[in-house]
Design brief:
seven-stranded mixed beta sheet; 15 strands; Rossmann fold; 4 domains; 11% strand; alpha/beta; 562 residues
Length: 562
């Protein structure tokens, strides 16, 4: 708008000056006084006075006629801009009150800011309730409203008319409180399709919020989960391990807070492939004893899913001797301190030591929430050993959180429905499933790339796409069948059971001859070949669901040559 206004001002002055300078006889001026008078009269064009209206003065000079109207438009634009600035708060509040079907973001956590930016990029009508805002503001599709003491953000943000409500407070407890209250209030809202999502810093709390009253109706996510999934999806460890000719994926995690733990879980849940063995996870954390006991307290069966070790320093880990002790080489390292300065210094130190002693054979990813380091072109193919690459940027985490999706569980619901059809009876509806079961169905979906890689598909063209342009799910080429025969179907069924077993164990389940849900004992936590045929049918059912789920289109994925 400023550019248009400036053009009007310049055009008005130039035309008016030009017109009056060629009419010096109208005022009997000459020389310098003629230029001065022309400039003065040009300025009067913005007042639209009698000199530009009277035929005796302006006559039919087209320059002065045009200047009269452009000057009027410039003045009107100035008054309108001044009015907008003066009444911006009232206007923003008025439009916020009229919102319907919008995205409401409550809170000032950095993830809230990132989600607002992502919503604006997606051109979603958004209302942000922020305690940091000094006054209401409106810019394009975004309305920002300040939150005063004691003010209910759900009321001021018209949560009852929103399409989705996202709560991301700086305090985890406040986030959970506001989100659970929104779920309770939602029962009386006319817009029953409103979805409530909540950001919780601790990934374990996000996965277990369903234990709180009303928590079953929340879509909970964490920055750590989203960041881990984003980097593991873009640079799959199984592809990095394959590049090294390793027998299994072996990752190094430096710093075992929420992000480090999310990376460990993601590796064993979403990166299992048919041609690689049990993954290896080596953790370096100065609180080794506490970090290990805390994690294993939450996931007591985790060591049944991987070779998991925690050390206080690199020397203790003995990574220089992996070839001698039978461990696969480290295909990727992840430096996870929350503070960027600490992450950068730790990553540089690791890079220097890894180069001297060949501790790491793959890339080194460091968490930089700003996403400061540029990413390489392509997917895994262009990554260099022991070179630093950043991950964990807030914008990438916001996009990977699925909090802004219309229905982030659409594919997971389809998986559950597939199980229902196979079972031959009316299973529990999605709305009544525990969050643990919902998460398990979501992991079936997120494991799709690993299954495609196990079938020989080349993921590199898909991974090489920018994050915002990469389609989900990945499409297959029209003439490339997902399964070439019964052997491929069995391979995926066996792999799905491995994934399911890891998922059960991560959630604390263990083997027992008789199922006991309260004690988390399950008789199916055995190798695939030991399962009854009717249980194997469920794993084959996932293979059939995947065949129906993946689209076919020109330019889709094909199998690697050979």
């Amino acid at each position: 708008m400023f550019g248009v206004w400036l053009v009007l001002v310049v055009v008005t002055f130039v035309l008016a000056y030009w017109g009056w300078h060629h009419r010096p006889s109208a005022f009997n001026f000459s020389g310098f006084r003629a230029h001065e008078n022309a400039a003065f009269m040009a300025l009067r064009a913005f007042a639209s006075d009698d000199f530009y209206i009277s035929p005796g003065q302006a006559g039919s000079d087209w320059r002065l006629i045009v200047a009269r109207w452009t000057g009027l438009a410039a003045v009107a634009g100035t008054l309108a801009a001044a009015g907008m600035a003066l009444f911006q708060a009232q206007i923003a509040g008025f439009w916020a009150a009229l919102q319907k079907g919008h995205t409401l973001v409550v809170g000032d956590h950095e993830m809230a800011q990132a989600l607002v930016a992502e919503a604006v990029r997606l051109r979603l009508a958004t209302v942000h309730i922020s305690a940091a805002a000094a006054r209401p503001e409106q810019t394009r599709s975004l309305i920002t409203l300040p939150r005063g003491p004691g003010q209910d953000p759900l009321v001021s943000g018209r949560a009852d008319r929103a399409r989705r409500v996202i709560v991301a407070e700086t305090d985890l407890g406040a986030s959970a409180e506001h989100a659970l209250r929104a779920v309770e209030q939602m029962k009386s809202w006319p817009a029953t399709r409103t979805r409530v999502a909540v950001h919780l810093d601790d990934p374990a709390t996000a996965e277990r919020i369903h234990h709180a009253p009303g928590g079953i109706d929340l879509f909970a996510f964490s920055e750590a989960q989203a960041s881990a999934r984003a980097v593991m999806l873009r640079y799959p460890p199984f592809l990095l391990a394959r590049r090294l000719g390793a027998s299994a994926a072996h990752i190094l995690i430096v710093g075992f807070g929420g992000l480090g733990q999310a990376l460990a879980r993601d590796l064993v849940l979403n990166s299992l492939v048919a041609d690689l063995g049990e993954p290896h996870i080596t953790v370096i954390d100065h609180r080794a004893g506490f970090a290990s006991s805390e994690f294993l307290h939450r996931h007591p069966e985790f060591k049944q899913t991987s070779q998991f070790s925690v050390f206080s320093d690199l020397d203790e880990a003995g990574l220089a001797d992996v070839a001698g002790d039978g461990r696969p080489p480290v295909c990727a390292a992840y430096v996870c301190p929350r503070a960027s300065a600490g992450a950068l210094s730790s990553a540089i130190a690791l890079c220097e030591r890894a180069t001297r002693h060949e501790l790491v054979q793959g890339p080194i990813f460091l968490r930089l929430r700003s996403g400061a380091l540029s990413r390489p072109e392509g997917g895994v193919a262009n990554l260099q050993a022991r070179k630093l690459y950043s991950f964990g940027g807030l914008s990438a985490a916001a996009a990977s959180s699925h909090a802004l999706d219309d229905d982030p569980d659409a594919a997971a619901r389809a998986v559950h429905q597939a199980y229902t059809r196979i079972a031959g009876f009316a299973a529990d509806p999605w709305e009544s499933l525990s969050e643990e079961m919902r998460i398990s169905n979501r992991r079936v979906v997120s494991h799709v790339p690993a299954k495609l890689a196990s079938l020989g598909f080349d993921l590199e063209p898909w991974l090489a796409m920018p994050d915002e342009a990469r389609p989900w799910p990945p499409a297959l080429a029209p003439d490339e069948p997902l399964y070439r025969g019964e052997a491929d179907r069995r391979l995926i069924a066996v792999l799905e059971h491995r994934r399911w077993t890891a998922d059960r164990r991560v959630n604390g389940w263990r083997y027992g001859p008789t199922r006991d849900n309260s004690r988390k004992i399950h008789p199916d936590i055995v190798p695939f070949d030991e399962l009854p045929k009717e249980v194997q049918t469920f794993d084959f059912g996932v293979a059939e669901w995947m065949d129906a789920y993946l689209p076919r289109r020109p330019g889709g994925l094909t199998r690697s040559a050979g």
